[in-house]
Amino acid sequence: MEIVKMLDLNTIISFLPEFHTGAEAIGIAILRIIWGTTLIFYGLPMLKRPFTWMDMPKPSGIPGFLQLIGALTIFGGGITIALGFLTFLASLALTGAMGLALILNLLKGVPFMKERPDAPGTSYEASLVYLAIALMFVFVGPGVFSLDYLLFGH
Length: 154
Hints:
By secondary structure, the chain is mainly α. It is 66% helix and 0% strand. It has one domain (22-152). The protein is built from 7 helices and no strands. It starts with a helix and ends with a helix.
């Protein structure tokens, strides 16, 4: 019976962050909408080749179904973050995706930043910043200007 109580929606919601109001909520909404939209546009090309998007210019060694999960997480997570819908769950999923991206870049020896913005190659600062943003939403929540607030905030 204790497990049933733990799965109660009100109990689960009680562990989520409070909904921020005022100027904080405006700042959170601006970041949420911009980052969510960025993730949508970042994930859209992945969905055009959902099982092989990591395999250019050479095979990545990552199984196709995991590449699909990554593409759906980034694209779908972008939609849900921008709307502020199920923000906690989307943020957790994006934390995993961005953490994995960071780890893969570190294992490849990719530098933190390129020496010039127009230099060829990749860097891992975007993965690190996106990981930090995802974690911020895990701990801070979506604010009152979100679908989560409309659905669960009362």
